[in-house]
Amino acid sequence: MTTQTQILRSKARKRAKTADKVATVVIIVFALSIVAILLGLIGFIMFRGLGHISWHFLTSNPQTIREGGGIGPPLFNSLYLLVLTMIITIPLGLGGGIYMSEYAKPGKITSFIRLVVEVLSSFPSIVIGLFGLLVFVNTFEMGFSLLAGALALTIFNLPLMVRITEQAFSGVPREQKEAGLALGLSKWKIITSIMLPVAIPSLVTGTILAAGRVFGEAAALLFTSGMTTPPLNFSDWNPLHPRSPLNPLRPAETLATHIWKVNSEGLAPDAIQIAAGASAVLVIMVLLFNLFARWGGRTLYRYMTASKRMN
């Protein structure tokens, strides 16, 4: 009986090892497939577009029917729109995340707020664009403008920022909060002096990743910031001047919408080359955002860890 039991156990161990090997191989194949798809997509875009990138291409104005156009204004509009969006998104996202993590009490209201955040994060960007068209462009009479686009992208990006902030503050060790309470510190003092320095690396990483999403968005901007850019006077940086690059109430064609417009209209003889070069620039910018997010998060984490050890 003992010998038969040992044989059965041996067979069971062999089956378990075989299943473990099969599962490991399947997981590795899936992981390598994802990497291959990503590298193939990036390689294809770079192969088609890198040869068309030059200083003239990055700084010159687009051309509608003539060849030789560049992406200077759309590239500037994308960066400026990114700044406007994050100026609005970061305070709202930090406030909402801190409230959900530290002030909101468990209950139906808190659960409803979390449900609203989750539903908002799953909205298609085209729907947010239509909402921005109806509310910001038409109702508030902002017209097609950078400000309307920034507000629409804030709605698009706010759920991500709230979740990142909530998770960053929830990840702070409970002992540190209790130590602050034992010292008689107020709740706001604990948040700003104890929890915020610990959460900063995660907040910075999440903020940069959210900024990368904003930089590559197109659908919501088609209905809010517009698909044209007026002639800009880069010697006049007065934000109140209609032709100033910093005027937030002017229409602005971003890099992503410019790619869509060039591919859909295709009036210029070199439209395919322009779209390929612009796509490569957009992919490079998104990759730089992601790499900078990882590097910045790790650097801040090491700095915070070293500061704790010194103290």
What does this structure look like?
By secondary structure, the protein is mainly α. It has one domain: Orthogonal Bundle (MetI-like fold). The chain has helices at residues 2-49, 55-59, 72-103, 108-121, 125-139, 146-170, 174-182, 187-215, 219-222, 255-265, 271-310. Helix 6 (146-170) crosses helix 8 (187-215). The mean pLDDT is 85. It comes from Paenibacillus wenxiniae.
Largest sheet: none
What is the CATH topology descriptor? Answer: MetI-like fold
User: What level of helicity do the residues show?
Assistant: over 70%
Order of SSEs, N→C?
A: HHHHHHHHHHH
CATH superfamily: MetI-like
What is the radius of gyration?
25 Å
The helix-and-strand class reads: mainly alpha
Q: What is the strand content?
A: under 5%
By CATH, the architecture is named Orthogonal Bundle
* Contiguous runs where pLDDT drops below 50 for at least 5 residues: none
Cα-to-Cα separation, first versus last residue: 65 Å
- CATH level 1 name: Mainly Alpha
- Whole-number tally of structural domains: 1
Characterize the overall form: globular
Query: Helix segment count?
Result: 11
Q: Mean of the pLDDT scores?
A: 85
Topology, number of strands: 0
